[in-house]
Design brief:
Layout lengths: L7 E5 L5 E9 L2 E6 L4 E7 L26 E2 L5 E2 L3 E4 L2 E4 L9 E2 L12 E5 L3 E8 L10 E11 L2 E10 L3 E2 L3 E2 L2 E2 L11 E4 L1 E4 L14 E2 L11 E2 L6 E6 L7 E7 L4 E7 L3 E5 L7 E2 L5 E2 L5 E6 L14 E2 L5 E11 L1
Antiparallel strand pairs: 1-2, 2-3, 3-4, 5-15, 6-9, 7-8, 10-11, 11-12, 12-13, 13-29, 14-28, 16-27, 17-20, 17-22, 18-19, 18-21, 21-24, 22-23, 23-29, 24-27, 25-26
């Protein structure tokens, strides 16, 4: 990838609009962003001969089977039980796009399915914007979002998201990249550390059970001491330790080829999905993707927080600014 300040055409949406690709380079990384979904389409580390993320060479896969891959998802990342919530005494019904039962990642027309506007581009940074209208997917409020992807140094992909609203609304936006440190090797073989003493057990809809959160101690979700991810399947929220709002290291992933990934964030939750149910797909450079091909590490609010008074608040109100920072730092031993 050759970095350039001039976005290039990547493909055309069914409505005829053009999707642009923005190529960035800095701090030992090179990245390609797409205006469709504000997604990271490709990410490379100097000295490594393979992509660090799952992606596609053309636009078409991003319209359906890879709609969330690398995208900013929301306006409420993760799930809302039964596609409904009550806010300030009024009940809202949101698009039940997952199994016709719950709302996932803001509904079928969430932020991952939108063409974002380019606001600023430099050699190592790009800022994109999107406004979701009042009533979109059943959510109240016109929500204006800015997402900045940058490569500030030390092998880091930094993402900062801000949002404002004109009426109270749920707001939790997340980067939904699937990371792969060992080309063609399952993430189940990699070692994972998570700074979380609690997690959210879920029911068969992947909605947190009434007694959540629960301790990770003596469960398969205890990654406080690094260990292999394994093949039991993970699609759960980890309740991160320390104070939300403060940047702190929350994750480390290591592969036996010497590559590692550390994650820092200011968010209260981390959804870990090991792609255990991902279908067979054709990815970057013709690579074959299947189950356990990548690891999603989505820093965010806790799922279904809008229906759980005991969860950290996820309501954005007029006059406030939603802020979300996450750093993905790659290194070679």
């Amino acid at each position: 990838m050759t970095p350039t300040d001039t976005p290039q055409e990547f493909g055309t949406l069914p409505d005829g609009k053009t999707v642009k690709a923005i190529r960035l380079r800095g701090g030992g990384l090179s990245a390609t962003l797409l205006t469709f979904g504000a997604r990271v389409q490709d990410l490379r580390l100097d000295g490594a001969d393979h992509p660090l993320v799952l992606g596609a060479d053309t636009l078409e896969p991003y319209l359906d089977p890879m709609i969330y891959h690398g995208a900013i998802v929301g306006r409420f990342a993760n799930r809302i039980a039964d596609g409904r919530f009550t806010l300030d005494g009024e009940t809202y019904r949101t698009d039940p796009n997952e199994g016709k039962r719950q709302t996932l990642h803001g509904g079928a027309d969430g932020t991952a399915a939108h063409l974002w506007e380019i606001r600023e581009v430099s050699a190592d940074s790009a800022t994109l914007s999107l406004t979701l209208p009042d009533g979109h997917m059943g959510f109240p409020g016109a929500l204006t979002i800015l997402a900045t992807h940058s490569l500030p140094g030390d092998g880091t992909l930094a993402i900062e998201i801000t949002a404002t609203t004109d009426v109270p609304t749920p707001c939790s936006l997340a980067h939904h990249g699937y990371f792969t440190l060992a080309d063609g090797r399952p993430v189940s073989e990699q070692e994972l550390w998570i700074d979380a003493d609690r997690y959210l057990p879920v029911d068969d809809r992947l909605i947190p059970v009434p007694e959540a959160p629960a301790p990770v101690a003596d469960t398969r979700f205890d990654f406080r001491t690094p260990r292999r991810i394994g093949t039991d399947g993970i699609d759960h929220n980890f309740c991160l330790n320390e104070t939300p709002g403060d940047m702190r290291k929350v994750v480390r992933v290591t592969a036996d080829n010497g590559l590692s990934l550390e994650v820092e964030t200011d968010q209260p939750g981390l959804q870990v999905y090991d792609a255990n149910s991902q279908p067979k797909l054709t990815g970057l450079g013709g690579r074959a993707y299947g189950a356990f091909a990548g690891l999603a590490l989505e820093t965010q609010a806790w799922p279904d927080a809008v229906n759980r008074p005991n969860f950290p608040d996820a309501i954005l109100r007029p006059g406030e600014t939603y802020r979300h920072r996450v750093h993905y730092r790659f290194a070679r031993d």
